[in-house]
């Protein structure tokens, strides 16, 4: 059994450690762990160690914060961009856990093109099913860095493989890429 499988089994096993965590904390933990496990299956740490985790202001961002912690435990080197934080205790706790693991945080201004020079994978945890309208700052400029127009390739633009949580960020949950954001993830991790 891999470390990722062991972690997922532990989380889902109601007989250990009092069982799964309740409420939003529990769902974030399970979602984030599942995302990290999915990444280990597809992007081996030996070739994809440097992971940029971009977290939005809602629960999609929370999935990303949890995934970053597990990725670190699985041997990856995550770096987090979390430009719009909340004061909610659950989220402050997630950030404290990441800081205690010495996982670096970067600002949007510190992200420079081409991203492939600094990162092997991007984890897109910016927006999920509650995204509405057109992206507002600072996420509009982040999404532009991740966009790959139809007539270009990610390699042309130096955009690393993108793993999106639940929905490609900037896409409408029903209508798709109605704003022509151009974010085209290589992998989507979502719950059924
Ligand atoms: N059962 C569950 O709930 C579970 C949910 N889970 C995960 O959570 C995700 C849903 O989470 P969510 O509902 O918190 O919303 P999410 O998509 O993260 O974004 C909301 C934030 O985005 C912002 N925002 C919106 N539009 C914007 C714009 N145009 N430009 C800029 N900002 C904009 C908006 O800001 P506001 O409009 O309030 O100012 C708000 O702060 C879901 O997809 C899944 O991944 C799983 O963990 C497990 C169970």
From TrEMBL:
Pfam families: YjeF_N (PF03853). InterPro entries: YjeF_N_dom, YjeF_N_dom_sf, YJEFN_prot_NAXE-like. Keywords: Isomerase, Metal-binding, NAD, NADP, Nucleotide-binding, Potassium. It catalyses: (6R)-NADPHX = (6S)-NADPHX; (6R)-NADHX = (6S)-NADHX. One of its GO terms (molecular function) is NAD(P)HX epimerase activity. Coiled coil: none annotated. It is an enzyme of class 5 (isomerase). NCBIfam families: yjeF_nterm. This is NAD(P)H-hydrate epimerase. The lineage of its organism: Eukaryota, Viridiplantae, Streptophyta, Charophyceae, Charales.
